[in-house]
Design brief:
Length: 216
């Protein structure tokens, strides 16, 4: 999942000198909030999708997102701070999309999930630029990055398959409509031909009218 960029700030569980505050707390705070929100709307999506394959993919990713949110909140607490909530103006919209009766393909596109990646380094590439990150936090970040990249791969694959299926169904649907219209025209033509045949047969069987057959 794409982590929502947040300016990190945290409240202290106990007093700290400003100089003691780790420089990467803002990053941990952003991850915890973003992953928790993703867990919530993915869970809502799981409840509404009729596609078992999509549900399986979303469940794998959703479990990871929820665990990430809690794990980073736990690490922040271990460092002596608490997660500082941040308002996400898009969260209500994300929940509405996830809970709606839209198709899975529409939800993928509206939520920005499973989007193709470009050639540029991903958003996780610079997370270890801070050389002051402690070992425990580094281990947590390393596992988080590996899982996020894997989640991105399986979501992109799922989205790609849904899109291919939708593209294959559209021509088939159009052909069915065209065939139905053609069948209707053929039936109407058959009825017209049958009516014409009946008229011709009736006229052939009628006796010639009595009258003077002498040539003029």
């Amino acid at each position: 999942m794409v982590m929502r960029a947040l300016e990190g700030g945290l409240t202290a569980n106990r007093s700290h000198d400003v100089s003691d505050k780790p420089s990467y707390l803002g990053l941990l705070n952003a991850i915890s909030i973003g992953e928790t929100e993703a867990f919530q709307y993915l869970n809502a999506w799981i409840e509404t999708t009729p596609n078992l394959d999509v549900k399986a993919v979303l469940t794998t990713v959703c479990h990871r997102e929820g665990e990430h949110g809690l794990a980073f909140a736990k690490r922040i607490n271990e460092l002596g701070y608490s997660v500082l909530p941040k308002d996400n103006p898009r969260f209500a919209e994300q929940m509405e999309i996830a809970c709606s009766n839209r198709t899975d393909l529409e939800k993928f596109e509206l939520l920005g999930v499973g989007r193709p990646v470009g050639d540029a380094p991903d958003i996780f590439a610079g997370m270890f630029n801070d050389t002051t990150i402690d070992i425990t936090t580094g281990q947590l970040l390393g596992r988080y990055i590996a899982e996020e990249r894997d989640s991105g791969r399986i979501l992109r694959q799922c989205y790609s398959l849904l899109k291919e299926a939708a593209e294959c169904e559209t021509p088939a649907s159009a052909s069915s409509d065209q065939l139905a219209a053609l069948d209707g025209k053929v039936d109407a033509l058959c009825r017209a031909v049958d009516e014409l045949r009946q008229i011709v047969c009736a006229q052939t069987m009628e006796p010639a009218p009595a009258g003077n057959s002498k040539r003029k």
